[in-house]
Amino acid sequence: MQTVLSKSLSELIKERHSIRKYDSTYKISQEEIKDILKEATQAPSSSNLQPWRFIVIQDQETKKELRTIANNQEQVETASAVIAVLGDKEMYKSVEKVYRGAHEAGYMDEANMTRLIESTNKTYPFAPEEARKNIAAFDAGLISMQIMLIAKDRGYDTVPMGGFNKAQFMEKFAVVDRYFPIVLISLGKAAAPAFKTARLPLEDVLIDYR
């Protein structure tokens, strides 16, 4: 397992860049990828329903097929792995497991557990599907950033990709209708530095300060 580097969060944020050239000979173990994902699931989510799911692709032939689905982006095939982040538009179906788990861990009493389960079941199932998809997509963004920062902390590189054929992805990986693909994240060792990028001045993005 890769040794975790000791860097501050500020350093990691500044050093993380989108890498598109990877060392295709470098392999990351399944165990470490699972460890990265497990750590990333500490991300916050709406009502703690954790509406994210993952498909990890490491098989070389499968990555080659995925490359055609992902607009021929080279990094899909050359990175050690591709993590597909999916959203769960029926996230409320996890409510019992989420809140009973919190109760059993001693984080809430039974009354609060029951109240939260009932409240979730009265709202989420009746919300428009588009609203639930928006919630899942927002939460998937939070965990995707966690994945990329955790990977950087372990000495790996990443790039998020939203440009791929979602319908073809669902067909290829037999994704059931409850879930929908949001982003692909290439994970591996850089073979070339990232392109330098600039950021807008804070004055351009800070609309108001009161």
In brief, what are we looking at here?
The chain has 210 residues and is α+β, with helices and mostly antiparallel strands.
Task: Provide keyphrases for this structure.
globular, NADH Oxidase, 210 residues, EC 1.7.1.-, 14% strand, Nitroreductase family protein, Nitroreductase-like, alpha+beta, oxidoreductase
The third-level CATH topology of the domain at 9-90 and 138-193 is NADH Oxidase
Number of helices: 9
**Fourth-tier CATH superfamily name of the domain at 9-90 and 138-193:** NADH Oxidase
- Unreliable parts: none
Residue share in helix: 40-55%
Oligomer type: single chain
The secondary-structure class comes to: alpha+beta
- CATH class descriptor name of the domain at 9-90 and 138-193: Alpha Beta
Instruction: Give the ordered list of helices and strands.
Output: HHEHHEHHHEHEH
Strand order of the largest sheet: 1-2-4-3
* Inertia-based shape: globular
Amino- and carboxy-terminal Cα gap:
47 Å
Largest sheet: 4 strands, antiparallel
| Named CATH architecture of the domain at 9-90 and 138-193 | 3-Layer(aba) Sandwich
Strand percentage lies at 5-15%
Keywords: Oxidoreductase
Family: Belongs to the nitroreductase family.
GO molecular function, one term: oxidoreductase activity
Protein name: Nitroreductase family protein
Task: Report what the structure shows.
Helix 2 crosses helix 7 (129-153) and helix 5 (95-104) packs antiparallel against helix 6 (110-123). The protein is globular. With 210 residues, the protein is of the alpha+beta class. Helix content is 44%, strand content 14%. The chain has helices at 9-15, 30-40, 60-69, 74-78, 95-104, 110-123, 129-153, 166-172, 202-205; strands spanning 52-57, 81-88, 157-161, 179-188. The model has no long low-confidence stretch (mean pLDDT 96). The chain has a domain at 9-90 and 138-193: NADH Oxidase, CATH 3.40.109.10. A four-stranded antiparallel β-sheet has the order 1-2-4-3, sandwiched between helices. It has nine helices and four strands. InterPro entries: Nitroreductase, Nitroreductase-like. Its EC number is 1.7.1.-. Residues 13-189 form the Nitroreductase domain. One of its GO terms (molecular function) is oxidoreductase activity. This is Nitroreductase family protein.
